[in-house]
Amino acid sequence: MVAAARCCCLLLHPIGIHPASSSSSVHRLPRITRLACSTSASPLVAVASMDAPPQGYRTNVGICLADPSLTKIFSASRLDIPSAWQMPQGGIDEGEDPRAAAFRELREETGVTSAEMVAEAPNWLTYDFPPEVRDKLNARWGTNWKGQAQKWFLFRFTGKDDEINLNGDGSEKPEFGEWTWMTPQQVIEKAVDFKKPVYEEALKHFASYLHSDPTASA
């Protein structure tokens, strides 16, 4: 196993984001069980940016995992909703530091330990669950959350693609069926509607750390 490289202060020169015209090949989980998915569109929910997570929202971390060149971003399709692609995310345990939660969730969902933290979004970004999603998740969790309050982190992957394992580290059930590297714009376009505003805001925070793709059209 490749040892984790946990550097929290990587200095990079600001370069703007320029979406590429195509993404790299898709990597699939060997064992995939397709579950029923909903095709109904969810209403777009405006994102809120706050200094502290508000009451009534589940505290959560979001992870923007960039490739070694800081050009493209990891995105994966959900096993329960294959048409929905997203960046890794997960709940913060009681008393857990958000940075520690980000490293843990990255490992649990992707198997990645070879990564360094590049940047942290300054504010908490919140979104509300659409009604059908809220009912489903709260029934599963035994809670009554309105939505999620997320602290976002940008990581740079320092390993090789074969380190990425959608079975994660084996501590949790797999969430994703396939993954690929995408441009920031593709990540936003592939996300479910109610997450798009959060993705847009998070990627704005990280834009100065990401390099343009030399193969992207002008």
Automatic annotation (TrEMBL):
Domain Nudix hydrolase: 56-204
GO MF: bis(5'-adenosyl)-pentaphosphatase activity; guanosine-3',5'-bis(diphosphate) 3'-diphosphatase activity; metal ion binding
Co-factor requirement: Mn(2+)
Gene3D superfamilies: Nucleoside Triphosphate Pyrophosphohydrolase (3.90.79.10)
Cross-referenced PROSITE patterns: NUDIX, NUDIX_BOX
InterPro entries tied to this protein: Nudix_hydrolase, NUDIX_hydrolase-like_dom_sf, NUDIX_hydrolase_CS, NUDIX_hydrolase_dom, RppH
Protein keywords: Hydrolase, Magnesium, Manganese, Metal-binding
Record-linked CDD domains: NUDIX_Ap4A_hydrolase_plant_like
One GO term of the biological process aspect: nucleoside phosphate metabolic process
GO cellular component, one term: chloroplast
Signal peptide: none
Entry-linked Pfam families: NUDIX
NCBIfam families: PRK00714.1-3, PRK00714.1-5
Family label: Belongs to the Nudix hydrolase family.
HAMAP family: Nudix_RppH
PANTHER family, sorted: NUDIX HYDROLASE 26, CHLOROPLASTIC (PTHR11839:SF22), UDP/ADP-SUGAR PYROPHOSPHATASE (PTHR11839)
Official protein name in the record: Nudix hydrolase domain-containing protein
